[in-house]
Amino acid sequence: MAVSLTALLGGCGQPEFTDVEKRTIALMSLSALAPLPPDPTNRFADDPGAAALGATLFFDTGMSRDGNVACGTCHKIDRQFQDDLPRGIGVAETNRRTMPLAGVARDPFFFWDGRRDSLWSQALVPLENPLEHAGTRTSYAHYIKRRFGERYERIFRPLPDLTGLPANAGPFGAPSERAAWAAMTEKQRDGVDLVFADIGKAMAAFERSLVHMPTRFDRFADALARGTAPAGDAALSEEEEAGLRLFIGKASCSTCHTGPRFTDNHFHNTGVPPVVGLPVDRGRIAVVDEVRADPFNCLGKFRDGDEEACGELRFMQKSSPELIRAYKTPSLRGVAGRAPYMHAGQFATLEQVVDHYAKAAASIEGETEIHPLQLSDRERAALVAFLKTLSD
């Protein structure tokens, strides 16, 4: 006879979780999330004026080469600040899935591969990416002066003299644009870079306001921590409770999807298959040198504060085989509402994701960290049911 869900849970009524399980579940509730720490590398991080300007820039399609793309084009405000597409589409289709932004200010590294080390330096990358906003640094400096000059100077500092600077010049872009950038003086480049860094710091100030909201799981976890029987909108079904037990137990999901945000903020090779037709994507190992060389990183001259804030960058893993085909552990909060899944939208449903982790196929390069799981169809369904409690 098949074991019932009630038997799996050890009875009915108040869930009979062990003390260890209760402590684990309590630490996964949003109630356990510490206050957002300050960002010493961005002295404007909690400046309301900078955040307001950042919000304006975030939704401004003028912040792109063709005037049609804003950050909000892919990070849609009504879709958890993502876009429901396998790969984001800016000026052209990108090679990666758009990540949601709730809680993003708590990450130590950014993007699927961690190629930037601060929220403000992350905000700058899409602006120059030829597949996303496709703009140039001088074009953004001119745009800020033309549209937001007084507002910028009220928040940050006087704008540099942009007289005579090329309309489009930068270290990326077309050969002519790179040549125009190289022809500028160091003082001119530094002035433009400072405005560019301030753009990122303003958008980061806005993005710090994007937070996770409590879900049914949080109400369940809080009731359990208080020692009261979860009821009403704090109750989970037997199937959902079974999925929770599997998540923190047999299935080992909480090894990486841990804490109140359901992420360890690290990078892992889990054998996710590549997408046919896309360029080779080696994950974290391919960007270690890039994040260290970024002029806007924590050790660069555009950082506010001192180097004490740069521990993550100084002591990050640089050459471990574990970084091959490794991608960031995404937060699972709201996961049921943002298919498809993985770094390039490889899986269309949560059922396919669970199936991938249960089978644990070998990675095409490097070593996968996951191992096959013997999960019944009922257990797989229970895991998916639990994951849906992380959405409200």
Automatic annotation (TrEMBL):
Residues reported in the UniProt entry to bind heme c 1: 71, 74-75
Key word Heme present: yes
Record keywords: Heme, Iron, Metal-binding, Oxidoreductase, Periplasm, Peroxidase, Signal
UniProt KW Iron keyword: yes
Post-translational modification: Binds 2 heme groups per subunit.
Protein name per UniProt: Cytochrome c peroxidase
Main localization, broad class: periplasm
Source lineage: Bacteria, Pseudomonadati, Pseudomonadota, Alphaproteobacteria, Hyphomicrobiales
Compartments where located: Periplasm
SUPFAM superfamilies: Cytochrome c
InterPro entries: Cyt_c-like_dom, Cyt_c-like_dom_sf, Cytochrome_c_Peroxidase/MauG, Di-haem_cyt_c_peroxidsae, MauG/Cytc_peroxidase
GO cellular component entries: periplasmic space
Cofactor(s) required for function per UniProt: heme
Annotated cofactor note: Binds 2 heme groups.
Class of the enzyme per the UniProt entry, highest EC level: oxidoreductase
Residues the entry annotates as binding heme c 2: 253, 256-257
A GO term for molecular function: metal ion binding
EC numbers on record: 1.11.1.5
Cytochrome c domain sequence ranges: 238-391
